[in-house]
Amino acid sequence: MFDLVDIYRENLAAWLPEMVQACFGTLKLAFLSFLLAVAVGLLVALLRTSANALVRAIAICYIEVARGMPALVILYIVYFVPPQIAPGVKWLALSSFTAAIIGLAIHGGAILAEIFRSGIEALHHGQKEAALSLGMTPAKAMAYIILPQAMRIVLPPVANYSIGLLKDTAVCALIAAPELMLRAKDLASSSFQPMAVFLLAAALYFVMSYPLALLARHIESRLSYSR
Questions:
Q1: Does the predicted model carry a pTM greater than 0.85?
Q2: Which residue from 96, 133, 164, 169 could staple onto 177, CB 3.0 to 4.6 Å apart?
Q3: pLDDT tens per residue, the chain (227 residues)?
């Protein structure tokens, strides 16, 4: 314990600015991945609840495959496979940061698709039928009647997913995406003090994720109070 105090006394001034800077990369990666995952998840959820059997089958296939694979495997596929399939196509050679966003969004989109689907199907079917009987198209009924109510149901699990996504960005260090864990690995290798560096990284992950946990609790309490 006293050794850690001495290590931090000697190195914290040099480590902390670098790791805090890397935290911004982690937050940016998590935020962009979250936005893309929400868009993918909502689209797949709508396909999953479609009346067309083929469309539903495609959505189910995506959900089961993407949800059944570890996020790290998807990251490797997105980052390493396209350049090998078409070596001469430059736009397929994604940067590590872009590949990390896409890989996390593919994995998260499958998870969020099921969350959104459960929110949509939790509503009584009579609401959609009533909207259609008033002359609304199915698209308008979904946009103005079903989705606004479903969002209230799915907000707590979506907020909890965002916490897990923030922590999942750590695996992106394995494809050299610029984020906190990559910086921590570099500092641990150069300083030969892995325990001290990774404890500091753990503290910074907690600092970033705890406000999200508070937000998730606040959303849950507000929604339960308003019912």
A1: yes
A2: 96
A3: 558 888 888 988 999 999 999 999 999 999 999 999 999 999 999 999 888 999 999 999 999 999 999 999 999 999 999 888 877 777 778 899 999 999 999 999 999 999 999 998 888 777 777 877 877 887 788 888 888 888 888 888 998 999 999 999 999 999 989 999 999 999 999 988 999 999 999 999 999 999 988 988 888 777 765 55
**Are 48 and 113 spatial neighbours (Cβ–Cβ below 8 Å)?**
yes
Domains identified in the chain and CATH numbers? 2-226 (1.10.3720.10)
For the chain, counts of helices (H) and of strands (E): 9, 0
Report how far Cα 24 is from the mean position of its chain's Cα atoms: 16
